[in-house]
Amino acid sequence: MKEILKMLEHKEYKKLRQQLEIMKPADIAEILEDLSHKNALFLFRLLPKDLAVEVFSHMSPYDQAKLSELFNVEELQQLVKELNFDDKIDFLEELPAQLVKRILKNAQVQERTLINQFLNYPEYSAGSLMTIEFVDLKKEMTAQEAIEHISKTGFKKETIYTCYVIDAYRKLEGIVSLKNIILAEENEKIENLMERDFISITTTEDQEEIAEIFKKYDLLAIPVVDLENRLVGIITVDDIIDTIEEENTEDFHKMAGLKPSKREYMDSSVLSLTKHRLPWLMILMITATFTGAIIKSFEEVISKVAALAVFIPMLMDNGGNAGSQSSTLVIRSMALGEVAPKDILKVIWKEFRVSLIVGLSLAILNFLRILLFENYPIAISLIVSVTIFITIILAEVIGGTLPILAKILKLDPAIMASPMLSTILDALVLFTYFSISKAILHL
Amino acid sequence: MKEILKMLEHKEYKKLRQQLEIMKPADIAEILEDLSHKNALFLFRLLPKDLAVEVFSHMSPYDQAKLSELFNVEELQQLVKELNFDDKIDFLEELPAQLVKRILKNAQVQERTLINQFLNYPEYSAGSLMTIEFVDLKKEMTAQEAIEHISKTGFKKETIYTCYVIDAYRKLEGIVSLKNIILAEENEKIENLMERDFISITTTEDQEEIAEIFKKYDLLAIPVVDLENRLVGIITVDDIIDTIEEENTEDFHKMAGLKPSKREYMDSSVLSLTKHRLPWLMILMITATFTGAIIKSFEEVISKVAALAVFIPMLMDNGGNAGSQSSTLVIRSMALGEVAPKDILKVIWKEFRVSLIVGLSLAILNFLRILLFENYPIAISLIVSVTIFITIILAEVIGGTLPILAKILKLDPAIMASPMLSTILDALVLFTYFSISKAILHL
Description:
homodimer; 3-stranded mixed sheet; elongated
């Protein structure tokens, strides 16, 4: 990086170009993202055309958009023409419709129609992830003929390692791996090599489901078909890895009460960051006033024994933390397909048993701590410990159950994480605490 | 699933076997995991040998261990012999050392030595992820000869799509994709097709770093070399997808104050679940007493104006939620390599500006809410709103900074998530709240 900047500064363009040519496209993309607009543009124009296209497809959508704002229309047209089909769609999706029109002005009618069709697939669907650059074979071919066909047409394909056998109407009849073709006798017919029980998806399939299928069956690519079972595209594993990370990011965000964002943190404006945080904070703030109302109804108790207020934060945190542990475990297990709604009773029973041990341990620890290190009456120590015990049982059972209930109600389990759960638990915990206090202290 | 159980019950073994033969190994594995021990063993023994091995390698380590407890030693030896090398290592790793010895008793010395070497690689390292089943080529071969070599030796290889060019001393000289071989002229030398600037890793590389490399360069496989650059194994993309999910699970767990566990939730015993939760809950409970101490030092203030206690939960939750948003965003961005320690000042500046807008919005909303819907003196409404404003600034700036500081100190940023952060923020928030109260109310 420093080297590159130095060469730019000293105008050693020949040396710079040589250096860039031996670098990996992904590394050059990373450097471009860190450079100033002017330098990035200059460096990009210095790249040999093939490399430039590869570098561009490794950049984040945001940086692609930023860089392409500096291009003239001819450059954009050239770039779009050279990009792989799926990268092309990803890029065009980020541009304003007017600009897309101008870029596609000179494209062939057929190409333009196809691109517009792809731009219309819903985000996060198979249609928007797939590419049309796959190898198709006919079942009458021999292994030898198939290899010849692949070597002639394979250059610009997204993958040649899984090939698709289609009939005259483009209906998908089978899938065959290049491995099976290579390992077969030269004269073996593709028909006898292909797998007929293959897994396929339709254009509307959600990306989360697709990722599940890849993980379960260890696939390198999956075919996408339309409602008449005609092959319309394929999705390859490298795009699925990005999808898996996207889905995980979405879960991390939701579980922290954030509106999920696809844009990188450093690329997000202050306003956009604010917009993703404020809604949940407002909702949670308003909801927290219910907890306030509970305390208010016990105001008399507090004014008599102000010491009770001392333990409010610890009790609240305890409930929040225990609930967050249970809900995170269950939410994550559901995301990985390990826990299903049908397991709800098993989860409740498991959480209940865990909470008995955890609750008892914490209650005893707390009782001893207050007894030994603080000088509160034993009644208060008892009240706090009993509340801890009940808190943990409530927190773990509710924390484990709510995400499953959300799933049953077709909501995203991730919203039942810490922020939402804490607010619910706070109210329960404080109500328990003050009720016990009132009873034991006869207030 | 129901069908299978029915056939088992009615002893329709022939029909059952036919049904199983057309199913995907991953689906059969899933069914086996849900069956009782006795039925699972029976079904497994019903499978044709090749399919049985594939099914077994799709099962989770826990279920593999459970099922294999029912096998006799001969069955285990047979199974281990047939498993792919990396699946073999994964399986043996889970078994007690005594049993491994008995299983390997009849293996050849060379094989046994190799297995023991692999069993000694640290968990989560390249050594423990890699397989030895790769295709090696010589640079003098022609494309035609390479394809012949692959078709002869490729059957039991983990992948044939990336091939490794080694010299007489097994030093790795280059990498060539099957695509480039297939697309080349028959007489082209491998030497001219191979990539010399390839990415390789050593056996001690951590799996998190390896996953980063796969994501960045869109690889299907990566070579693993020893310190003398001799090729010792390869890692393929399907194993990396599992690794990515494992790393994400670890982060989810850590961020919820859980000691990470590789075992699935439903497979974990109550005691093991307890052991993973209790340590952090205890630490956090003890730490929360500091917050209690702050309240205690203001006990007089509370006993005079008990109404102040009403707002404690809302203020604490606000701080916790805002801090959790910032820290989650930054932790996730660092995990994805988008934010680095060098960005710390940019992050602080960004969080500060976001927190000004968020804090002001929430403070105003809260001020109006209390003014319009509750009958507290305006002074209290003011105190609470000012505290909210300061809380949000503290929460977002500290929440965004702590994970980066953790990274700089070589700690895992994920521990600076909600539970830890909330405890820190609680103390700051309550101190702020009561100090302001004391000043404004002249207590």
